[in-house]
Design goal:
It comes from Pseudoalteromonas arctica. This is MoxR family ATPase. By secondary structure, the protein is an alpha/beta fold. The chain is built from 14 helices and eleven strands. Helix content is 43%, strand content 14%. Strand 6 and strand 7 form a beta hairpin.
Length: 327
């Protein structure tokens, strides 16, 4: 199906409308998770990757499938299991008996949208197979480096670590995810609506295949460029850095956020500005994206964990302690 914004140069208003149309498209099958959809689209147009965490049945996989269907891009899914090998994800070389040469067999990571389903079901060796492609958008197989076409986005889902048979993600890999988004249960009204939708002859999930593609690869590239061109005041840059630096010296935080955090805060804040039809970033844009960007980059002390202090409480306290610039 052809996309609505298939041709021509997009203006800022067009881009904001296009993003909204993708959001509305996904909302047709994913009910009651509007904020989550907006966060995932923020990561897409900021050029990052996203980690979705929640108990089974909240629609993590459905969200990724609906996103891929809403875009005219290639999509691959890998179900991570304890016996999955790195070569099952990125590919491997095979010996051709006829030619006497080794040929590369590309894995599912050679795509635009990669769903790494239940990523923490696989051991660290397999999880780490994604390190190179997430950072450099390329894969090296037997010494040969192959690039991945743009856009490229990894959407990984995981169950909470207290679930049986899960492995924690390596710190280096966690840092490569722009955001860690926690999915909670929908509101009462949304849950009732979901119940109605999924007890009909044709379930809600089966409607994903009927979603139209809203944006082309060219549209996505244009929107990403418009986001990159959003204006950021010097005070906003300083505000983002101060927030990240505060996390490193915060009482009860063993390890704070690194340099990628402040970079990702500004990138995500630019997308938030575009979504709201502005060509400049405000402190509120920064405040909105900080929790999802810092959440997986902090390591709390045993004392804070024993007291039951959550990551969200620590991040809220950090935001409250750093004065936001005034316009």
């Amino acid at each position: 199906m052809s996309t609505e914004f298939a041709t021509g140069q997009l203006s800022l208003t067009d881009a904001a409308q296009a993003v909204k149309q993708v959001k509305d498209n996904i909302s047709r099958v994913l009910v009651g998770q509007d904020a989550i959809i907006e966060d995932v689209l923020t990561v897409l147009f900021a050029g990052g990757h996203v980690l979705l965490e929640g108990v089974p049945g909240l629609g993590k996989t459905l969200l990724v499938r609906a996103l891929a269907k809403s875009l005219s891009v290639s999509f691959s899914r890998v179900q991570f299991t304890p016996d999955l090998m790195p070569s099952d994800v990125v590919g491997h070389s095979m010996y051709d008996m006829k030619s006497g040469d080794f040929n590369i067999k590309k894995g599912p990571a050679f795509t635009n949208i990669l769903l790494a389903d239940e990523i923490n079901r696989a051991p660290a060796k397999t999880q780490s197979a994604l390190l190179e492609v997430m950072q450099e958008q390329q894969i090296t197989i037997d010494g040969e480096t192959l690039s991945i076409d743009s856009p490229f986005m990894v959407l990984a889902t995981q169950n909470p670590l207290d679930q049986e048979g899960t492995y924690p993600l390596p710190e280096a890999e966690l840092d490569r995810f722009m955001m860690k988004i926690e999915l909670g249960f929908p509101s009462l009204e949304a849950e009732v609506e979901l119940l109605k939708l999924n007890t009909k002859v044709v379930s809600n999930e089966s409607k994903v295949s009927q979603l139209p593609a809203v944006l082309s690869v060219s549209n996505i590239a244009q929107i990403k460029q418009l986001c990159a061109d959003i204006l950021v005041d010097e005070k906003i840059y300083n505000y983002a850095v101060e927030l990240v630096r505060s996390s490193r010296t915060w009482q009860g935080v063993l390890h704070g956020a690194g340099l990628r955090a402040s970079i990702n805060i500004i990138k995500a804040a630019k997308v938030m500005a575009l979504m709201n039809g502005r060509d400049f970033v405000t402190p509120d844009d920064v405040k909105l994206v900080v929790p999802n960007i810092l959440r997986h980059r902090l390591i709390l002390s045993a004392d804070l964990e024993l007291e039951g202090v959550s990551f969200n409480e620590v991040i809220s306290a950090i935001l409250a302690s750093v004065e936001a610039p005034r316009s």
